[in-house]
Structures are given as C-alpha cells and as structure tokens.
Design brief:
heterodimer, A: 131 residues, mainly alpha, 73% helix, 0% strand, rod-shaped, B: 142 residues, Rna Polymerase Sigma Factor, Chain: A, Arc Repressor Mutant, subunit A, 75% helix
C-alpha cells in the first residue's frame, strides 16, 4: 500500500504549535522599562563628569588657539620687517641709488639724525669700554 | 528560532532594548518593521551561538538538544505533525530555517523577507524551494 506523499502546500497549513503564556504581554512593558532604566541612571552620572571635562577642555583649547594666533601674527610682523631689510641689503638688482630715489626729504633728515646719534653713542660706548 | 519560551523572552527583551538604544541611528532606509525584524533575527542567532559556546557544544548539537526538549516543554502545545514539522525544519541550515519559517509560518512576502535578510528575492525563492523539498522528504521518511 502506497502512503500518500506529503505535499506541504496542498495540505492544510501546519502551525508552529507554540502557545503564548497567559498574561505574558501584560507585564512585558514593565520588565522592559526596568531593563532600560538601569543603564540610563549610570549614564546620567557619567554625563555630568563629561560636561565638566568638556568645558575645561574647551577653555584650554580656546586659550591655546588665541595664544597661537597672537604668537603667529607677532612672529609674522617681525619676520616681515626682517625679510624686507634682508631683501634690501642683499638683493643685487637694487642699488643704493634706486633706494635713494624713493626716499623723501623727511626720510633723509631722519636717517642723518639717526646716523649722527648712532655714531655719537657708539663712540661714547667704545671710549667707556676701553677705560 | 530558539524553540523555548524563556529563551524567546530573553531574545525579545534584548531586541527591544537594542531597538530603543539604536532608534536614533535608524535612517529610514528600510521600513521600521524590517529593521526591527532584522535586529530580532540577529539577536536570536547570536543568542543560540552564545548559549552553544557556553555549553561547550557545537551549534548543531545545541539545536538538536533544543528540538528534543520541545516535546516536554510546557509552553509547547503542538500535536504530532506540528512537532514533526519542527524537527524537519531543525535539520535545515540556519538561514534556510529562517527563510522557511518566515515564508511558511508567517506568510511574509519575498520582498519583506529580502529587506530583513538582505538577500535577493531570487535567492530567497530558491532557498525556500529547496527547504520545502528537504522537509517533505523528511516528513515522508519519518
């Protein structure tokens, strides 16, 4: 006798057979909330500490950046003056006559005064040192 | 997938905890339903793997144990054919079990399954076809 071969899709649907315990979902939400509540409390403590550290770090960062910017511009100003002087002193294409053409009468008077006072000051220093 | 009420309860709790914690990361690229279902599926598989490892047995051995305990489980109310089908499904590879259960028991559309399992519809149809063949063979020989 041939047994009828089972054809899953031509037979009535076979359900899984599991049952849900009575009132399972009545307290499901409460149990889930308890599980979620515990890590949240720990997080609040950590957040407070992190906030303090965050502000301290932010203040230190702003101070460092401000100091850095100030030092950079200071350095750049000094470098600019130095680089201009070096350029004028060592640049072979520019002659003293070229520079003189660009000086005004007031510039020349100021230079003479400076050179005169320099000479006097230097002479005085040398004389005093040799004593 | 875990074939046991207490384990199912754990997996379900873990799933909703994960959903709650990661809801801000949900970008709406899939349906919320698919996203939650995917988390649940992954949690079930992780749970089985972790429990098998803790028991010091292979996943297959652990699943054999679970299916053998099913008949004695107070929360299992199945008759002979329902139990036989569960045993037949348990012989399938893990992913194929998922495909069969989602299609046969839950009557999900292939497009929905594709979103959950991140597998093409074609591959799912092929997997289901082979799953049904294996199960029918098991049921006809047992």
């Amino acid at each position: 006798m041939h047994m009828k071969k089972l054809d899953l899709h031509n037979e009535p649907k076979i359900t899984p057979g599991f049952k849900i315990p009575e009132a399972y979902f009545d307290c499901f939400e409460d149990r889930l909330m308890q599980k979620l509540a515990i890590p949240e409390k720990e997080e609040k403590v950590v957040r407070l500490w992190q906030r303090q550290t965050f502000w301290l770090t932010a203040v230190a960062a702003v101070f460092s950046i401000t100091l850095g910017i100030w030092m950079y511009f200071n350095q750049t100003a000094v470098e600019n003056n130095t680089s201009v002087q070096e350029y004028l002193a060592y640049q072979n294409d520019i002659t003293a006559e070229d520079i003189a053409l660009h000086l005004t009468h007031e510039d020349i008077l100021a230079l003479e005064t400076e050179l005169n006072s320099f000479d006097y000051t230097t002479e005085k220093y040398i004389n005093e040192s040799l004593d | 997938m875990v074939l046991n009420h207490d384990d199912t309860d754990d997996v379900l709790q873990n799933t909703f905890v994960k959903v709650f914690k990661n809801l801000k990361n949900f970008k709406g690229e899939s349906k919320l339903y698919s996203w939650i279902y995917r988390i649940a599926t992954n949690e079930a598989i992780t749970f089985i793997n972790t429990k098998a490892k803790k028991s010091g047995v292979s996943n297959e051995a652990f699943k054999d144990k679970m299916i053998n305990n099913l008949e004695a489980d107070v929360d299992y109310d199945g008759n002979e054919i329902q139990l036989k089908l569960q045993k037949a499904v348990a012989t399938l590879p893990e992913k194929q079990q998922l495909v069969f259960k989602m299609k046969y028991y839950q009557e999900m559309k292939y497009e929905e399954m594709s979103a959950v399992l991140e597998t093409s519809v074609g591959a799912l149809k092929a997997s289901y076809f082979h799953a049904v063949k294996k199960i029918e063979e098991f049921l006809n020989h047992n």
